[in-house]
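Sharing a chain and its predicted structure for anyone who wants a worked example. Both blocks are below, sequence first, tokens second.
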Amino acid sequence: MSTYKNLIGKDVNFLTTDPDNDAAEGQIWYNSTAGVFKDLLVSEAWFSSGSLGSGRYALGQGTGGTVNAGIAVFGRKAGPAVNSTEEYNGSGWSTGGDGNTARYGCAKFGTQTAAVAAGGKVTVPSVQNVEEYNGTSWSEETDYPSQARQYLSGFGTLTAGVICGGHNSGTFYGLTDEYDGTNWTTGGVMNNVRSTAGTTGILTAGLTFGGQTPSITAKTEEYNGTAWTESGDMSTARSHLAGSGTQDAALAYGGFTPSSTTQTEAYNGSTWSTSPATLATATARNSSVGSGASTGLSFGGNPPGTAATEEYNRSANVITGAAWAAGGNLNLTRSNVKGGGIQTAAIATGGQTPPSPAFTVRAETESYNGTSWTEVADMSNARREFSAFGTQGAAVAFGGENPGDTQLNATENWNGSSWTSGGNYPVEISLQGSTGTQTAGLGIGGSDPSSPTNLTCEYDGSSWTSTAPGGNLGTSRYGLEGAGTQTAAVAFGGSPPRIGLTEEYDGSSWTSSNNMNTKLRAMGGAGTQTAALSFGGAPGESTSTEQYNGTSWVTSANLASGRSYLGGCGTTAAALAMGNGSTPTAEEFTGETSALNIKTITTS
């Protein structure tokens, strides 16, 4: 009889704890602590990632970087073509430079810092326009010489790229054009004319699959830099699909079959097979990036245009995307609420209860244990449009407006059971940002008393000190949010007008950083100077969530319910959003996590 070692080449190890890395992939071990046999399996799955900043469909089709450095190019939003670009960093999107010619159904190829967009449709005519992207801006380059067409696809690099297929005025083409970074030359003609196909690969090892001929097709062809050769058909014919990978290890996902689908297929260099991993939402007219069969990214699609982004991973690690989930309901449904703490130990205080304009300004404070809210002692001053910071047991509330809409400079300290008076703020203030602790806090900007200010003040637990003029914000604003500490803070968003400006504070002065992707005010905030989170905001009641890494902002999982004038606290791994005029529900944020796919072996 063969043993496990004879068959697999490994012993069954005797361990007291499970392995903590993927070196154990495919191995069986006995966990003596749990008294069970276990193994580490490779899994395939799609998970939700940070949404595009702008929902759209018919984006540039073809390769465009990796899942840690991808690019979304142009497209269409409920009608007109757009010229916007977004960049993906592995978890979310940030705004890139705008193109010169708005278009949809174009081809793209290259990387995030060296990309090409070619062809497409500009509302009515198809074009031959070519633009190059350097990671910051687009420049017009030599038009490709063959037939102008739309819904063509691309693959390769800036200096060795390919565009192929497409259609124009009802005629479908099998044309191929090759780009060397400066000039275009004619390549081999495809065996099957088609548009809306998926593509991936490089100039000398390319792949195209699916599309329209004009009927939906399953045909697959491989390119060697000179000629196309037919290969195995896809399992399911489909058009307007996306793909990633290499010529001998590719993925195809989404598309019309004729209805939009969640199906994913894998290609091994000769045949296609249906993957057990499916997209969470059926989609078509989506786009993609990815250079290997173990990873992929699908984004956009589904007219009038979605912002949804899903990432594919085949690994011994199970990745769970960032997400918001419902928390416990506040006892009072209120907006303009503020507070502090962490996700499992927070307070919410003040604000206003609906209906508006006949709202009631509140002084009530509630304490949260990660599951439910409990009413505790009221503030001495009912207030709205104020700010607060600190912890569940040591917080500060200051400024705002009282029930008569008069601005306040009053400060109150919270000790976990009651509020007591602290030193007055230097000016009457409302809609200011803040961050820090009870003994080392920071007040930032606001309305003083009816115009935006750049004032920055520091709190030591009993009194406020105005910083020198060099310590004030670079841009006066109200409705902004803050995160971090008194000596390492970040301020973001605000009005007027709505601005996405970001500034960092080092304890003495502010410096400008990269803008947010969405211009908002009255958001919730959490985190530190190098790991901050912004969520919700006005105008309207936004679901937008963005994460800051100390340099730039990227999108993250959207709130389940749009809200503005809310409170926030916690970290980028575990944040809390609280308050909104229409719902008492708090929401809890969990950042992206990764864990080994360890399974217990059973006889069932």
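Comments welcome. The chain has three domains: 4-41, 45-320, 323-590.
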